[in-house]
Amino acid sequence: MNQTWKGTYDASIDMWFSTYPDKTTQANGAEIMIWLSHPNALAGGSEMGVDGTDWYLNEWITSGHGVSWPVIIFTHTTQISSVKGLWLNPFFRIAESHGWLKSSWYWTEIAAGFELWRGGRGLSVSYFSVDS
Q1: How far apart are CA 120 and CA 122, in angstroms?
Q2: Which of 26, 51, 55, 91 has its CA 20 to 30 A from that of 36?
């Protein structure tokens, strides 16, 4: 991810899970976000190691389109702009161990990008690839 480190945003990988395979409607299972960076945004939570790297873990319930679901956010404890070979299963297993994600649910979407809160000029994703 190309970042200016100006403004307030998060640079993340966002994954959606649903109890049904339909990708055209709002997912109703869980949302897992992996924040690589979060300039000028507060981050914290329970600190834990995931696959040899330190992350903060937060979870809350959100809703939209008549559906509620848990949002599980893993925030890298230091600001980074890229990952290579990031193994996602450890993140899924942690969410499952808390009861926030079920192994029987469908993984319906994955995206990489930014949530902009203030500013954001010059941000871009230069490469994103997933092997599942």
Answers
A1: 6
A2: 26
Q: What is the mean pLDDT of residues 78-94?
A: 92
The residue type of 56 is Y
C-beta separation of 14 from 33 below 8 A: yes
- Alpha-carbon distance of 115 to 45, in angstroms, equals 19
Rg (the chain; Cα; Å): 15
- Three-class DSSP category at 58: strand
pTM, 2 dp: 0.90
**In what helix (H) or strand (E) does residue 94 lie, and over which residues does it extend?**
helix 89-97
User: What does the pLDDT look like over 40-62, one tens digit per residue?
Assistant: 887 888 999 998 899 999 999 99
CB 58 within 8 A of CB 73: yes
Average pLDDT, the chain: 91
Tokens of 106: 């469908």
Sorted by sequence, the CB contacts under 8 Å of residue 47 that are 6+ apart come out as 54, 55, 56, 57, 77
For tokens 């329970």, name the residue: 46
